[in-house]
Amino acid sequence: MASASRYGPTWPRKATETQVLLGPEDGAPNFAMRRFTMGEGGGMPLHVNAVEHEQYVLRGRARVGIGEKVHEVGADDVLYIPAGEPHFYEVVEAPFEFLCVVPNEQDQIMILDPVC
Question: What range defines the domain where residue 71 resides?
Answer without folding.
Answer: 14-113
